[in-house]
Amino acid sequence: MSIHPTARFTALALLGLITAPAALAFDVGAIASLEMNARDSNNGGNYTLDPGDYEFEVVQLNYSAWNPWGASSGCDADGANCNHGWITRFIVDASVDGEFEGNTAGTGDPNNIWETKELAFANAEILHVCITETQSARVYLNDGNYSDNSGGLSLYFTRVNSACASLDDDGDGIANSDDACPNDADNDEDGDGVCGDVDQCPGTEAGAEVDSDGCPTATDDTGATDDTGTTADDTSATDDTSATDDTDGGGGGKSGGCSAVTPDPSLILLLLGGLAAALRRRARTANA
Predict the structure, then answer these.
(1) For 210-269, what is each residue's pLDDT tens digit?
(2) Which of 84, 115, 170, 183 has a beta carbon 3.0–4.6 Å from 75's, enabling a disulfide?
(3) CA dihedral 193, 198, 204, 207 (to 10 degrees)
(4) CB under 8 Å to 257, separation ≥6 — which residues?
(5) Reduced DSSP (H G I as helix, E B as strand, rest coil) percent helix, strand, coil of the chain, to 5
């Protein structure tokens, strides 16, 4: 991050504002200091911000808070929620990424208006800003009428890293730079390796092989199943050579309902012996 030469030698010099010499050209980890007198509309500075994650923090140097009304009124018993009073609000207006407002209503306390500058400073919060590409930015205090103002703000701001880690598009608490699914707050709920924002088959069974859409891939014929639940290559099914053909419904297959019987050899011999004896008796009777 580097300070724009115009801001360095004109605006800051004319207003008597202080910028630490080390901040004139600093990299990740270095700190810039900016003093903003709230009584003048030309109270800020212009900067060139390189891509990265930035932090803007109100510090107690020449100023710790400012009062757009010059007085405090309508505060509660805790010195908070005032109608008029001390604030630590400031603007970072980036040419590409838009406007960021530090210590806006809804952070610190409901209105961010305090009875004293000490209370306002004690409740100030750090503003985190993500800069996506090199761009110009102006940091300043904004008010419609500067003539009744008092105080000002002292800011430290630094380029924390170059990865823009504070950006979290899906709001899951994981920075985009560390989030495997930056647009999926559920972070691939079915665990198939395809983020939920592009997963066409959510709820895939654990361990299933899926395609780029998160849908199960088709296997070969030996393992794939059809809609009937049977395997495509069902080798357990019998063919016509082993199946019976029960044409008469008797349950007996090709024998027409009668079961085939194999005779006992000893019974056959007994029957043949009886037949031979009968034939001999018949012969003797015929000769008598």
Answers:
(1) 998 999 987 644 444 444 444 444 444 444 444 444 545 545 444 445 555 666 777 777
(2) 115
(3) -10
(4) 248, 250, 251
(5) 15, 25, 60
Q: Has residue 204 been placed in a domain?
A: no
Angle (CA) 119-120-121 rounded to 5° is 90
Instruction: Please choose, from the candidates 63, 230, 66, 54, the residue with its C-alpha nearest in 3D space to the C-alpha of residue 145.
Output: 66
Does a structural domain hold residue 226? no
Report the relative pairing of strands 127-131 and 90-94 from DSSP bridges: unpaired
Tokens read off for 186? 């559920």
Residue with tokens 């019974």: 267
Domain that holds residue 146: 2-161
Task: Determine, yes or no, domain membership for 185.
Answer: no
Q: Which residue reads 């105080």 in tokens?
A: 151
Count how many domains the chain has: 1
- Tokens 């043949």 map to which residue? 272
Q: Are strands 52-59 and 150-161 parallel, antiparallel or unpaired?
A: antiparallel
Q: How far, in whole angstroms, is CA 83 from its chain's centroid?
A: 41
Residue 102 lies in a domain: yes
Backbone angles phi, psi at 130, to 5 degrees: -105, 120
Amino acid identity for residue 9 in this structure? F
